Amino acid sequence: MWHTVWSSLPELISAGIKYTIPLAVISFALGLVLALITALIRISQTKGPFLIIKAIFRFYVWLFRSTPLIVQLFIVYFGLPYLTIKGVFPDGIKLEPFTAGIIVFTLNTGAYASETIRAAIESIPKGQWEAAQAIGMTRFQTLFRIIIPQAARVSLPPLSNSFIGLVKDTSLASTITIVEMFEVSQQIAAENYQPLVMYCTVAALYAILCTILSFVQSWLEKVTTRYLKPQV
């Protein structure tokens, strides 16, 4: 058993470095940008035609929070090639597996993280908006100089949890032929007929990676709260 474990580790770790980690990091980074834009649009007080844009983003959040991630992966990778539009996509929309994975994980992360960021922004006391306005700051200046820095600290724990969850969710990328860690473990298990050993091994690697990320999360929380006064 141990020989199987040790001999499979190089392939599993290589797949993690080549696909699992980049897939999670790129998707989360892009997802955060999308989440911030979505959150700002949804809390905007602009009226008129802008309400249509708010409705579109509200629908986007609802859609990706209401459907399973694996179904989203299947729609983008296996379904879009059948979406033919004359003059635009005559042969359908065909994406590389990694590209399809990035798109789906980014959109999914953006939908969930936008709610976290929106709640964090709205948790900041309205008095701070009023105080900033009283000293002549614009709403844009108030948002990016005062509100968002505080909201970032508030949203750090849930966003960190989302990233850890995303790392584990990348295992679903194996369903669209991305050769990440779980897919490699399946391939090795098919060769040596020891699925229990291989699946336990890859589970241990995910656990180690997520544990490291948990320590990083704890350190970031300490750094961002070091100037806060302890509550009595």
Automatic annotation (TrEMBL):
It is found in: Cell membrane. NCBIfam families: HEQRo_perm_3TM. This is Amino acid ABC transporter permease. InterPro entries: AA_ABC_transptr_permease_3TM, ArtM/GltK/GlnP/TcyL/YhdX-like, MetI-like, MetI-like_sf. The chain crosses the membrane at residues 20-41, 62-80, 196-216. It is a multi-pass membrane protein. Keywords: Amino-acid transport, Cell membrane, Membrane, Transmembrane, Transmembrane helix, Transport. Belongs to the binding-protein-dependent transport system permease family. Residues 17-217 form the ABC transmembrane type-1 domain.
